[in-house]
Amino acid sequence: MVRVGDVELCIETFGSPADPTVLLVHGSCASMLWWPRALCEQLAARGRHVVRYDSRDTGRSTSFPVGEPPYGLRDLADDAVGLLDALRIDVAHVVGRSTGGAVALVAALDHPGRVASLTLIGCTTGDDDLPPMSPAFLD
Questions:
Q1: For the domain that residue 66 is a member of, what is the CATH number?
Q2: Coil, strand or helix: which one is 25?
Q3: What would the pLDDT profile of 62-92 be if each residue is shown by its tens digit?
Q4: How many CA atoms lie within 13 A of 38 on its CB side?
């Protein structure tokens, strides 16, 4: 468990902290276990320091009463960057899936110097002014 602001986040790391860090951000209705251990171990074996974590209200991290959560997307993004701070990681390759992609995107926009690269999986920007996902990807 790592304290980040007013929450505790359950984390798991793989590989050496001296290697470039990959921060894995899961989607809603999932936990850090969505990122398979075998994937994390393979990335670590290829010279990456992998960090996966349960976001607030997920897994063993701090949870809140059922209902309207007292936090939003920006808080989740700040948690991701706060986790890097707590682990003394200056910059990370951030990978986000689904809602985790939106979290990763906000983290990159708000803290561009902390994100070495951004990989978004199965997510949208939520911006109606941008074109929608190609129907070919839905087949």
A1: 3.40.50.1820
A2: strand
A3: 899 998 889 999 999 999 999 999 999 999 9
A4: 0
